[in-house]
Amino acid sequence: MSTKKEALVVANFKMNFNMRYELQHWFANFIKAKKGIRLDSTRLILCPPFIHLSSFIKKIRSKQISFGAQDCFWEQKGAFTGEISPTMIRSFGGKYVIAGHSERRRYKGETNKIINYKVTAALKAGLQPILCIGENAREKKHDMLFSVITKQFKECLYDVGRSRIKDIIICYEPVWAISANKPDHLPTTDEIMEAKLLIKKLLIQEYEGPVSEHVRIIYGGSVVSKNVSEVCIDAGMDGVLVGGASLLPHEFVKIAQTIDL
Ligand code: 13P
Questions:
Q1: Phi, psi (degrees; rounded to nearest 5) at 113
Q2: Three-state DSSP class for 64?
Q3: Domain 7-260 coded CATH 3.40.50.12280
Q4: How far is the CA of 212 from the centre of ligand 1 (A)?
Q5: Where would you tag: which of 160, 170, 246, 247 has the fewest CB atoms within 10 A of its CB?
Q6: How many whole angstroms from 220 Cα to the centroid of ligand 1?
Q7: d(CA 122, CA 86)
Q8: Does any ligand 1 atom lie closer than 6 A to the CB of residue 242?
């Protein structure tokens, strides 16, 4: 991992904490798990459901922890019933937003074009987008990693100029590895490195070398403390995006500690 860049450990809590007591329980355990632990070069980014964002910001205060949202709309304000704007997220304390998660592509029909509108709107509001890209099982089977990632990269980042690319975090999240409980459903270190090199190449091709150096590339998909060395450290990634394991505070903190070593 590059020593210059702060590593990122992002929690995507997805649609969890349905009951108030579940949230209180998580807070209490997280505070316990985090007590006395210093992270020197790792930032935690917590992305709860919108409705809990303010509670997280009030409850958890640490220089090493920032907050984000799991999605946003592409307009900043107005008659868009049910939507949450990037400006709202920013002004209520969020600094990051996940864009293009495969679950939104799948269940909400988000296309690269829609994701591009969201990325652009997020940047405009001063948020740092965490852009998820990655192939699904069928695409993997047909050796389509290169074409899928290239298309997602180019279309989702369309019109994002050189001055803004450093604010983007790219997450390589192979769809087939999300919430996969079988060991053979985890990419190997080499496979993750291959995806990283491809993303790096695209960055250098589309933006100049020195600018692209600032972009952090992280990994997502079934990350736990036991595999974080393989999927992040050994693969030279700048951090991880964690789903299921983020619901377990001790496990989540352990992942961050391993990366921070
Ligand atoms: P899991 O860590 O549960 O596989 O989820 C990954 C993910 O979708 C993070 O955004």
A1: -65, -45
A2: coil
A3: no
A4: 26
A5: 247
A6: 6
A7: 5
A8: yes
Q: Is 223 in the pocket of ligand 1 (CB under 6 A)?
A: yes
| pTM above threshold 0.90 | yes
87: Cβ contacts below 8 Å, ≥ 6 apart: 76, 77, 125
CA 146 to chain centre: 21
Q: Which of 209, 192, 120, 204 is nearest to 156 (CA)?
A: 120
pLDDT in tens, the chain (261 residues): 444 589 999 999 999 999 999 999 999 999 999 999 999 999 999 999 999 999 999 999 999 999 999 999 999 999 999 999 999 999 999 999 999 999 999 999 999 999 999 999 999 999 999 999 999 999 999 999 999 999 999 999 999 999 999 999 999 999 999 987 666 689 999 999 999 999 999 999 999 878 888 999 999 999 999 999 999 999 999 999 999 999 999 999 999 999 998
Q: How do the domains of the chain map onto residue ranges?
A: 7-260
Determine which one of 75, 155, 173, 230 is catalytic.
173
Question: Which spans in the chain are helix H?
Answer: 20-34, 53-59, 86-91, 102-108, 112-124, 137-141, 145-156, 189-206, 209-212, 228, 249-260
